[in-house]
Amino acid sequence: MSRYLTPSKVSVLALIWLYSTSWSPRAEYNGFELVSYYDILSFVISLIVPGASPTAPGWAALQLSDFERILRAGRRASWPGQNAWDVFLQKIWQDFTCLDDLHSFFKILPFDVFAPTAEERIQKELDHELNKRPKIRENPISRRNSPVGLFVRRACLEFTRLQFDDTIKLWESFVSYRAPTEAAVRKRHPELMSLNRADPLMLHSSLDGYLSHQTNVQEGASNEDVERLLEYQIEQLQKYGNRVPEEMKRQFQAMVSPGISVPSLSHFVNFFDAWRAGDYTSAFDNLHRYFDYTMSIRDKTYYQYALLHMAVLQADFGCFGEAYAAMQETIATARENQDMSCLNFSLSWLYHLSKAYPGQMKAAGYREVIGSEREGLEFLESKARDDKMWSLLSSTLLSQTKLRLSNGDSISQALEHLYESSHLNLHHELASVTGAQMLMLSSVLSRLGLSEPAKQQAMVLKVCHGRSSPVEENLRATCRLAYMAAQAGKYTRAMDLLDGMTPEVNRVLKFYQYLTTYSGILKLKQQLHHNNIVASSHLLSRLKAASPLDPELNLELALLEVDYLIRQQKLPTAFDLVEDLGVRLKDEGADVYQRIRVLSCKGKVFSRAGKPEMGFSVALRAANASLKARIMPAAWEAVGVLCNILVSLKEFAAAVKLLDGITPQALEGEDSMLCAELFATQADAHMGIAGNAESGTRERSRSLFEANRFLSRAMEWYERVEDLNGQLEMLAKQAIICRLRGDDTATSKKAAEYVHLHDRSIERMKEESGPDSSFTLLMPEKQKTTE
Amino acid sequence: MAYPLSQAAKLELQTQLQQAVVACTERCLYHSAKWAAELLNSFPESEQDGQKLDSGLYMSDNTSNISLQSPPVNRNASASNLSPREAHLEERERHRYLLAQSFFNCKEFHRCAAVFLPKVIPNPTASSNTPSKAKKATKGKSQVGTGKNTTEQDTLSQKSLFLALYAKYMLGEKLRDEESEMILGPQDGGVAVNKELVGINQALEDWFRRHPDSSESQGWLEYLYGVVLAKGKNEADAKKWLIRSIHSYSYNWGAWQELANLIESADELTSIAEQLPKNLMTYIFHIYTCQELYIANDQIHQQLDQIQEYFPKNAFLKTQRALLWYHVKDFVRAETIFNSLLKTDPFRLDALDHYSNILFVMVRTPQLASLAQHASQTDRFRPETCVVVGNYYSLKSEHEKAVIYFRRALTLDRTFLSAWTLMGHEYTEMKNTHAAIESYRRAVDANRRDYRAWYGLGQTYELLEMYAYALWYYQRAAALRSHDPKMWHAVGSCFARVDRLPNAVRAYKRALAVGAFHEPGAAPGGPFGSELETGEAVDEGVGGGGGAWPQAAATVMDPDTLWQIAALYERMGEPEEAAAYMELTLAQEEGPDGGAEPEAADEEDAVAAPAPGGQGCGVTDTTSKARMWLARYEFARGGFARAMRLATELCQDGVEVEDAKALVRDIRARMERDKEDGGGGGSVDRKFGREMVA
């Protein structure tokens, strides 16, 4: 493979030559008309200046037909009946007959394109060969420092650097490159096609048999083009965190295969690819290979970047000890080399890692590098501000937001940071951080109980910024949407959302795992609601075996396990689990939201166990903390548990009062299960009031009516989430109320409904538990069909 | 003139050549084997019916007196005709021989030699340091203490001994090349020697002493001995042994080649030819050596014609023909032959470097590029290819790149002569005179007959303004190419520089003589055929496209040389002689056909040639200078009419118009004054003198 020059570049040089030799300051004397001048120049510029035009075909894909498209339009005033394309064709056939012409072309090119300098003028007069060349007038591209001038000079330099054999290769590939136009030239200029000109030694007749294999060398891309492509690939890989599509990979392979030398950058691409594919050993191998091959070119300053990548890789594969050690070294090297951006990045990364995996990092020997968390963040923030690393600043601000949220600090401060970050994103066009910022905003909103705006944020991220933000943010947004849908009981919609993710996600191991776990959790939730213990136990064991690294998922799974145990009436085990969870979260200094949820869960367990007194303080604490931190969903849940305990403690009026206050808000939260439970508790409370009242009194009948009303409402919400136990309970309670009222028909009707529902659920369970159900249940729908 | 080979003779010759190929291959002399195989395959296609049964094949010309006989068969050359002792030995050693041969083919020379001579050859450095000891060892060959080596050698067949020693020799060559490291690097002074030579020399001496009977010898050991002696600069002995080798076995082309390399002049060739057997190989050798010695006369061409009748397809012979044309500067013919060679055998790279030289001189850039492309695609790492590419770059005036390729050629083969010379040219172009001198020197060391290198050395020293040195080298070149006016011209200019004016004049006159050797009056059967004229035409570089020059036209004398001679005479204070040569210079404008009256000549030639001056060189700077000089000379002598006419002509030609006009004015003034009175000559003389100095 040639280093730089390709047949397409030679063709463009020929075009530039034509342009500059036919240029004249007065338009009417131009070889080309003014319109085509513009076209030609913009065509050339789009090729030469990277990124000048998004629609340009690029060097590797440039064919002579592209030239034809541009040049057909240009007519040449002095040549009636001919257009620029003809002139161009004539040029590349007439002036390139044999290898020698190629050499001559590059020799005279700078003299023909550039207006000569004073000393060159002298040289030109001395050299009779150059003296015959046409005179060049000063024209827009004849300056050496114009983009075209730079291109021409680079090309000439590269040609000088070519070995003779490489010039032969270039010549041969040029011959096959222009071969498609042979028919056209033969028609117009038959005199150009004589074999005599192309083969001065007349060797071809005797070599026909031998040379056939040599002449069909076609290589479209030079090393430089390939390197540029690789750089693009890496940029995309780093930006989106996905893998190289198969199609692109294939094309790239086809492009590279004719050449022997593969740029070392391709090892880097391979490294990313293997990393994303979860191929730990290959990733390592490729990373080391890349740095071994590039060490000779770059000096040791890039060492820290190698370490940085290594640390990220280690962490991604769960080797926190190694990751931590590598990052420590990175920081040390970066400090030594005064590489601020690397230092800041590694510090921030280390902080994130310790936030995300506190336990593991502690086990790996992590200690706060710079004082407390907050100080650390502030340090990073000021550093980023000083070094004008806007992306880092923005993400640090997000970290600040997260820290405030998880500490349960003031929401307004969190919002301030968030908006600051948002401003930075808009101002500096930080597409990579925008997704994270929107996700953060969405979670802030959902903490405030504004589920609809939260959903909207996620939707906006998915729809508007999906293409420009990393795949991971997309995935998280989708998962959040799916979770919300599942909470509202729209299981199919949730599954559809998860299935709707681009298949690209599945090609990255980490994302695939995340997605699978997420869909497994949603399925487990559904199965628990269906009271399908067998399926649930299977799912649970599988999910636990996979043990998600993400702390949120971990918590969600643990809570579901508690739910599973409660449903099986294994309350001691459930209690132990909750206790452990609470202790662990406290140790890790986990998010206050998570801790509140665990507290509420503990209260629920107490109340189920018939020990409401013990649960009371727990529930109260949970409610108190959540209100303080303004985490509304948690508050509603905690209050619900509290009311449940109050009912158990026969404090019916207080419970009703509390619930009256909270239920309308909770309804906005769109957590169907929570609503159902709130309504059920309210029904219980009213029932309790009715039980306290004298029989036959108006109050009693009213309370009974209220209870019945709330029961049917709870029934409605339970139906939404398809919670079997809840529905059955409500039906049983309704039946009891009916009997109390003395309405036997209604009672039997409810009883029949109960039986029907029960039977149907059993049937459904049987249906679902097909062979190997546990495995298929875990997979998202689409995988199931493909299996 | 030549008689076709009889069927029987042809068959015999073919058998001989077949055996030669086998024998050379067995001894790992690959180039000789290739050469013989090429010859074997170049008999004419159509089978003769064998009606002519003349195997005597005497040449008609009596000068060379070489008969085209196939060499005697029944010597002990071929494998079938071994002496029983040798046959027995070879049979016994067959397995070991195969082993050694395969080692040689894998370039494991140490191992190859060790198969037969585990420690025969004493450490060469030790033996060279203590010659007395070595002498003792050779003397006491029958004694017990040193007997081991000799007995071992005695039990070896000649074939095995040859292979073992040849492997040693190759090893030494390889080590020598490796020692020299980079081309023109600090270690590459051309002084590194093959350190195995002493040992081989001794072993061979021993062997020959113990086998004084040459009838048993197969010729190969003699060949090796000759090569070793030649490397040791012991040339007389080397020639002797090579001739012995040839007498024992004639089909080893390598021996012939070595012998040819040792011959320095035509006289030597004739004296050696008498000692050679009279057969086909000698005949080819004669042609080859003549070519190498730049002897290109009709006789050689005739000989070549004859031999080509037997081997019409032989590329080697065609190459010799092309080179002969090349030496007399008939580039067109040489080019045609090379081109046809390339077409018939496109992958033969031998001698392509000469082809590229020809294309270079003819300034056929596209062809040269094409040749380079083709050679490069055939084999990139052959010295010939590199030289072709280097020549191409040189023609494109990319001298740095040219040097890179010449260096590559030399890295591949340090004895590749033309690359050294060409590299010298490139260094001269790049003004790197020291490197140029070193390159030329190496070329000359490798082959003392390379006149280009001698000439290049001279040029370089001339550039450095060291004329005495330059003179010496030019003289060497002129001695090698005594028919080339360019050499004599150079010698003359150097003589002039060192103020040896008579010598300079003689050299210039010599240049004139060899340049004008082929005037129309020259004998048609003379040593230089009429072909030379076309060659000369190309050499002049006037048309560039040879052949266009009319064959019958007489060649003009070089006006530059004439002018130089004139100027020298003037310096020697002989204005009459100077004036005569100036007149001659002027006369070249019209050519020899044109008389003293230019007008008449113009009228005559107007029809024949469009150019003014017809077959003459036309008005050039030199002739204008001569005209100016003559005008002033006449003016000084008082021949105003002639002076006036010459000055007016100068004005017409548009050369030095200002000076000419001034002169015209002066003449007019003088003529008018002369009309008035006859005085005032002194001032003009003074003026004349001043202007001449300026």
From TrEMBL, chain A:
The keyword Cell division is annotated on this UniProt entry: yes
Keyword Zinc-finger carried by entry: no
A GO-annotated cellular component: anaphase-promoting complex
Keywords from the named record: Cell cycle, Cell division, Mitosis, Ubl conjugation pathway
Region annotated Disordered, chain positions: 763-787
Domain Anaphase-promoting complex subunit per the UniProt entry, residue ranges: 267-356
PANTHER family xref list: ANAPHASE-PROMOTING COMPLEX SUBUNIT 5
Protein name: Anaphase-promoting complex subunit 5
Organism: Viridothelium virens (Speckled blister lichen)
TrEMBL record, chain B:
Placement of TPR repeats on the sequence: 383-416, 417-450, 451-484
Spans annotated as Disordered: 46-87, 123-152, 590-620, 673-694
GO biological process, one term: anaphase-promoting complex-dependent catabolic process
PROSITE patterns tied to this protein: TPR
Keyword set includes Ligase: no
Pfam families, A to Z: ANAPC8 (PF04049), TPR_8 (PF13181)
InterPro entries cross-referenced by the UniProt entry: APC8 (IPR007192), TPR-like_helical_dom_sf (IPR011990), TPR_rpt (IPR019734)
Polar residues bias locations: 60-83, 140-152
Organism name: Viridothelium virens
Matches recorded under SMART domains: TPR (SM00028)
Name of the protein in its database record: Putative 20S cyclosome subunit
Keywords: Cell cycle, Cell division, Mitosis, Repeat, TPR repeat, Ubl conjugation pathway
